[in-house]
Amino acid sequence: MKTILKLLLEILFLLIGVPVFMILFCIGFIYTFFKHIIKWDYSLSKQFTPILRNINLVFDGLANAGAGELLNDSLDIKNEFVRFGKWYETISAVTGLIQQYEKDTWLRKFLKILGKNHCAEAITEMQAYYYNHLFTKK
Are 34 and 50 spatial neighbours (Cβ–Cβ below 8 Å)? Predict the structure, then answer.
């Protein structure tokens, strides 16, 4: 019963939070755009690069969380620690960690189109430290 209530609470937050956050994002994005157009300053790209990067990270996290089980099953991931499905990790970083601690996959080979060592470079320092600690502890 407690897990159902927790799920319903998350759904309520979703129904309220997503529209509020999307409205806030749109207003802030439009404000930033017009502010820099009116001033015609050089920082337009400085302001929009982080916005676009964060949009990419949000959708990467959504894809990782939503397709985690599908990716784990289709890539036959046996590792109990390094797995797809965590919203706070990117698909590229998890793919790089899987290569490092388990096996190479067709997904990593495909993601090489983003850069030769894209998946290895996508692993954050925190992830590298955390997973290295997990695997040396065993």
Answer: no
